[in-house]
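ARCHIVE CARD
Drawer: 12
Card no.: 0347
Subject: one protein chain, sequence and derived structure
Cross-reference: see card 0346
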Amino acid sequence: MPIYEFECGECGERFERLVPAGTDNAECPACGAPGAGRRLSTFGLTRQPTPAQKRRMEDRRGTDRGGARERFGESLARARERKPGP
């Protein structure tokens, strides 16, 4: 069963619903009106690099991250100090 995207003609609510293949209409969860029409869905792709890709690009370019690694390490050390032992 695919997930389809619907839009209510009464209230304009957009929602997703897991329905049998080929379903063209669904009931609106916001106002309860029958006949919310199926929308053409877009892909969830992005051209933004992932955090790991950004780090590798910065490392190749020699970009300074302003001490981000050090601050992260310090925050982990503080969290470990506060954590009560068993």
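Annotation on reverse: The beta strands are 3-7, 14-18, 25-26, 36-38. The longest strand covers residues 3-7.
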